[in-house]
Structures are given as C-alpha cells and as structure tokens.
Amino acid sequence: MDDLSTYRGRLAGLKHDVGGLIAHRGVEKLSDELADISLQMEAPAFWDDPDAAQLVSRRRSQIEKTLDDCALLRRAMDDLDLLVELAAGEKDDSLLPDIAAGLDQLADMAERRQVELMLSGEADHYNAFVTIHPGAGGTESADWAGMLYRMYNRYVEQAGWEFTLLDYQPGEEAGIKSVTFQVTGDYAYGYLKCEAGVHRLVRISPFDAAKRRHTSFASVFVSPDVPDDVEVEVEEKDLRVDIFRSSGAGGQHVNKTSSAVRLTHIPTGIVVSCQNERSQHQNRAQAMKVLKARLYERALAEHEAKLKEMVGEKMDNAWGSQIRSYVFHPYQMVKDHRTGHETGNLNAVMDGALDPFIRAYLLHQMAASGKT
C-alpha cells in the first residue's frame, strides 16, 4: 500500500492549503454578514429603495457563492478522508484510482478558488464583453484575429461559462475584421481582463506563396458587463448612431433588413456595434450596454492610473503594449512578456489552455502591488 501512503501525504498537503484558503475567506464573518443581510431583506421597506436593495441582494449572492464553494471543498476533503481510511482498513487497492482522481479534482478546485482570491477588484466578479480587432497587415492579421477568437471561444467553453456572439465582421479573404462577444459566468471579467492587450503571432504565412515568415498583431479589449444599478452616464448629444445591414451568421433576417447598429462615442472615440438581435431597437440596447461597459472600464483604468501616480508607480500602456507572443516557426512557444511565463505546448494554448498564463499574471500583479 505504498501508493496509499503517498496519497495520504498529498491529501494532508491539500488539506493544509484548503484550510488556509477557507480561513482567508473568513467564512465565520461571512456567515454573520449573510445573517445580517437576510434580516435586512425581511424588512417590509427593503425594496423602497430599489438601487440600494439591488446592491444588498448582489452582495448576498456573492457571499452565498463563497460559502457554497468552501462547503464544496470541505465535502471533497471529507469524502477523500473516508475513501483513504476505507482503502487502508480493507487493504483494498481497487480504490486507489478513485483516490487519485479525487485528489486531482480537489487540487483543481483549490487552485481555481485560490485564483479567485486574487480577483478582488471592484468589477472582477462581473460578466465580460470581449472585442478583438486585427492590427495592420490585411489578411494575415485578420486570420490571426480569427484564431484568437477561436482560442477564447474554447477557453470560455472549458470554463463552463455562457458565450453570446454580439457582433461579427468577417475578413475579406480569411479571419475577421472585428468581433464582440459577451461572456457570462463567475468572475468572467476578473479572468479575461488579464488577456487585454496586443497579441503577436510569428509563423510561416499560409497566404504567402513564397512561404516566408510573417509577424501579425491583434488587439483584445475586455470590459466589465456593468449591472443596471451601476450608473454610467452617456449623453445622447455625444453619440453618433449608424444603422447598417448585418453581415454575419444570425438567421433569415440577416442581409434583408438594416437592423445592425453602430454607436460612436464622440468624446472618447470608442466605437461599438451589435447585429446579433433581430430588431434595430434590440441591437441598439445591446450596443449601448457594451458602450457603457467600455466607458466604465476606462473610468476604472483612469482611477487606477491616478492612484499609481500618487504613489510614484510607472503605469504600463496596457492597450498599446505587446503582452504575449505566439511563435509557430522556427520553433513552437507561447511567452507572456509581462510575467515571463512560457510554454512549448502551443496547440494546447490555441485550444484554450490559458489558466496558467492568467494565474501567472494575477500573481505578478499581486507581487507588484505588495499584496503577497
């Protein structure tokens, strides 16, 4: 039963890590806060102020999720404890594969919750809007933007989140001119904000008859999906509204009616569009939601920049800097220039294996802010 001794040691290590994680969450204090919130919500006048009530209700949902996560980790540890003791008492090696699988599952759960502990920003728990634009370079960059779109689609699918396509402008020969999609799930913005910036591709071009090596760029923009009770002011006089025909997949109404909407926010130059819905009114409402998200994200970034300027920190240009390189030739490697994290498993990354890069970036940010 040598393997069982190894598994016992691993389980002890995981119990220590999970115990620290639960303690860091402050479960007892959260339970007390949840009880206080429940009493508030039972008051007859609770919904007299709908905006305040929404904030309290959302806080309750956050606490309930945290407590559920901690309970899930505890149950997983208890189940493994019982399984290990059963295997030892019965001297039953047939249980070892189940114990190994349970340990792997517990380690994955603990790691993801540990990452979420690093997501303490004001908007980290929100859903997200993601927009991808190709850089200069015509077909090459359009194709690269399309490859990134597929990569994020896979990542969202693996995370178990909901993916909603809002706007899709196909490239003339390949790839995309631009794409915007919504990601709905726990901490979607907190995770995906780590991907915002310029992504660089190096490969032998499939569009070059001479088979030369090309470098392409694409930009990824990530904004929090702001709840309705968070005020973001957009004045009508600051908007230019363009109506056009949809050009992507979307059903029988596509290309038959001018229902797609493009909004340009004149003071900032931010442009968003939506063609996913059937009516012009619905598309405008969705485009306005994306615009407000972009303006909210911009305000958060400006606030963070002012805080860092006050303490003498130099700000990186998050939108203008190259954050990651994907090299297909003469070797295969993906490297994040912010953290130094890299891997040679290019295919896995392009299939959505982004968590190691996101975790490395969050740890890097925590170290830079002195929170570790």
Short description, anyone?
This protein is an alpha+beta fold. Helices cover 48% and strands 20% of the residues. An 8-stranded mixed β-sheet has the order 2-3-1-5-4-9-10-11, with helices on both faces. A 3-stranded antiparallel β-sheet has the order 6-7-8, covered by helices on one side.
What does this structure look like?
By secondary structure, the chain is of the alpha+beta class. 48% of the residues lie in helices and 20% in strands. Helix 3 (50-90) runs antiparallel to helix 4 (96-117). Strand 9 and strand 10 form a beta hairpin. The protein is globular. It starts with a helix and ends with a helix. The chain contains nine helices and eleven strands. The chain folds into two domains: 2-117, Up-down Bundle (Methane Monooxygenase Hydroxylase, Chain G, domain 1); 135-196 and 203-309 and 318-323, Double Stranded RNA Binding Domain (2-Layer Sandwich). The strands form two sheets. Strands 2-3-1-5-4-9-10-11 form an eight-stranded mixed β-sheet, sandwiched between helices. Residues 250-255 and 307-320 have low confidence and may be disordered.
